[in-house]
Design a protein that fits this description.
Among the domains are: 33 residues; 81 residues. The protein has 5 helices and 2 strands. Helix 3 runs antiparallel to helix 4, helix 3 packs parallel to helix 5 and helix 4 packs antiparallel against helix 5. By secondary structure, the protein is mostly helical. A two-stranded antiparallel sheet has the order 1-2. The radius of gyration is 27 Å and the shape is extended.
Length: 199
């Protein structure tokens, strides 16, 4: 038996639908409602390891996976997100009147975000005189994610988007190769002897 706790994902949409159904079936006369005795919705720690996995909702669903949101749920969520983003934009512009509206996020922004992340993980941007902090495994994962992006978007990008993605992938892969070659060479060299006169 392992001491590692397990987590259970609870689908809030299903719970909300059940609550709405109960409300619609209840009598129209308002009655005082007792405080709920069940724990709040959301992820919770499951201590018992013999917990049975949830049955698939649909024949193609994987066990334990929540069903995909409906079109209406996605529309409502997107509308709420856009309203919240607009409010945030207005707050930021109120604090910085000279700042204009932010340009819309594009595919190039996504590629640039991956590029910056990979380069920082490989030690770029380190201030002069400081030792670079390298996360070579994180950099590899970021570069691999860019490879997945390339594979999944193949044939659906504009010529400029394709060129941007290919150029950035080439650059980060070359930087990764240079860095791993340096790490390999340093690992193979014997440690430097102490300077003469100091023991």
């Amino acid at each position: 038996m392992t001491d590692t706790p397990k987590f259970e994902v609870i689908d809030r949409r299903k719970r909300k639908a059940e609550e709405e159904e109960r409300e619609s079936q209840s009598a129209p006369a308002p009655e005082p409602v007792a405080a709920p005795t069940e724990p709040p919705a959301g992820p919770r720690l499951v201590v018992n390891e013999n917990v049975r996995e949830a049955e698939p909702e649909e024949p193609g669903d994987e066990p334990g996976m929540a069903p995909a949101p409906t079109a209406e749920e996605s529309r409502q969520q997107r509308s709420a997100y856009e309203a919240a983003a607009l409010r945030l934009d207005e707050l930021v512009r109120a604090q910085n009147p000279a700042m204009g509206p932010q340009p819309p996020v594009t595919f190039e922004h996504l590629v640039q975000q991956f590029y910056v992340s990979a380069m920082i993980q490989m030690g770029a941007g380190t201030q002069e005189g400081q030792r670079p902090r390298v996360d070579i495994l994180g950099a590899k994962q970021t570069i691999d994610l860019m490879g997945v992006l390339e594979e999944k978007t193949r044939g659906s990008l504009s010529e400029a988007e394709e060129r941007t993605l290919q150029t950035v992938l080439f650059e980060v892969r070359m930087a990764f190769l240079e860095l791993t070659n340096m790490i390999t060479l340093q690992g193979m060299q014997p440690p430097a002897p102490p300077p003469p006169g100091k023991r």
